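Let us practice reading a record.
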Amino acid sequence: MKYFKFLTLFIFALTLFSCKEQKSQDTNTSFASSTMNVDNELKNIDFKIAKNYFVNNTIDSISNPLIETQSTFDSIFGMATVMGEDGKPTAIDFSKQVVIAVMVPETEFITSIIPSRISKNKEDKIIFSYIIEQGQKTTYTMVPSCILIISKDDKGEVILNEVVMEK
């Protein structure tokens, strides 16, 4: 019964996160337009958000946000397969792709990590800008995470940049 409740709440959190994906694209547009001077020095990187994964309960933090191998990825994340068309975890081909992962500490609030922008600077460092949105308090805890898949050709040292939005 406890497992069923956890799975139901986890699916709810994933659904909530996927609904916010459109909003992140709007945020990316406004963020990009407000940083026109910096844009000349940065090259945007195409990415895909990996869905239906969860952080293993043995993990407290991620030491390096760039994950280059399947074994490292599997030691941090587990698959959360659910029923339906979009129920399978996003496929990742580590021979052609790498992953950038961010997580925040365990919380009892519905929390989403929303990608704002991912780009590469002149020194080939990847800058991953994201927004953390916190919602209502729940009766359970969760470890919010965001997993981005990028091309292996774009890999480099990752700099995490939490964008703080004024309310």
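A brief commentary: The longest strand covers residues 126-142.
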